[in-house]
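Page 47, continued from p. 46.
Same chain as before, 194 aa.
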Amino acid sequence: MAPALLDRYIPQPDVRERFETTIRAPAALVMQVAGRFDMQSLPAVRAIIRLREALLGAQRDAAREPQGILAETARLGWGVLEQQPGRHVVCGARCQPWLADVAFTPIEARDFATYAEPDQVKIAWTIEAEEVAAGVTRFAQETRAIATDAQARRRFRRYWCWARFGIVAIRLLLLPAVRREAERRWESETGQRE
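Result:
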């Protein structure tokens, strides 16, 4: 088995969540759908985001235009650490996730593993597509996080005790939604060719 994409950025995380599913569509199409999928088009995801805002007293985002996951995370301040078109994207940032109005700041890929500014949490995540048979893809997403010092680790653990339920739920809601859309698009494209 090949090493995980995030091993070079966060080899020993405080938190690691990985989820995957099988999709009956080619990897390039799956990545296109995943990268452009608007997570907030799912009512349950919007509800989870609103709940976090309410619990922490965050400023509510102004009306937003629908946008794909990659565009939205870039708008929020995440950076791309590496990518291979049609196969994977790795994004990362530093932040203080326990704050109501969390701000994400990108870290250069070459500096990510060694970045250690105090009172921060480094987070890296992937979306990955690997064709395991003709027209069959294993789609995965993984998130890893690590605090840069003991104080940040304490704050992050308190936050993660309750926030993980919403974050994991969002990931689990995204998988079948991407699968449905990719399979629908692939059926539509192959049906037109016949």
